[in-house]
Amino acid sequence: MAGTTVDHLTETYQAHYRSLLGLAALLLDDTASCEDVVQEAFIRVHSARRRVREPEKTLAYLRQTVVNLSRSTLRRRILGLKLLSKPMPDMASAEEGAYARIEQDELKKALRKLQRRQREVLVLRYFADMTESQVAETLGISLGSVKAYGSRGIAALRVAMEAPA
Question: Which residue range forms the structural domain that includes residue 28?
């Protein structure tokens, strides 16, 4: 039988739902949109599962679909949809939560100021734990471009995070 099975796709989705949600959260900024994107990615990969000839690439297809759907969501927002703020999850203590939120907010603000490709490369490379080759394949760019965008993105983040608020 050609393609990945429904059972394999379901297992992959269940095992990686949180990481896919985290990937979307780094590209978008509200929980509802992130959940919608991840659900839609599953539906689309499920519909095209016969094209996933190698089951071990199922997660890569899901990640790529999450990135593409996140881009589409951002494009629609640029055309006029209202931006929503993302609520933070409950933390162990108020102090711990406050510090974590400040750091996360600063990183997200700095990430949003990067060029789109720099942000995508850094999110896939460091938050989705993808190799440079996987990032290149996911984004449809060369390995050299991944390295260049990554290097420039890290330099820009370093400057942004060190600058006084």
Answer: 1-82
